[in-house]
Amino acid sequence: MLKRILVTSLALALMVCFAAPKQSADAAERRFVSIAAGWVTGAYFPMAGAISRIAFNNLKDENIKVTAESSGASVANANLIAAKNTDFAILQNDIAYHAYNGRKGMFDEPVKNLLGCASLYPEHIQCIVRKGSGIDSVADLKGKRVAVGPIGSGTTENVKQIISAWDMSLDDFQAEQLQARQASDYLKDGRLDAAFFTVAVGAAAIKDIATVVDIKVLDITGPNAQKLLEEVPFYTQQPVPAGSYPGVDEDAKTISVMAILAARADLDEDIVYKIMKAMYENIDRIHGAHAKFKNISVDKAMNGMTIPLHPGAERYLKEVGVVK
Question: Judging by beta carbons within 10 Å of its beta carbon (0-12, 13-18, 19+), is residue 101 exposed, middle or buried?
Answer without folding.
Answer: middle
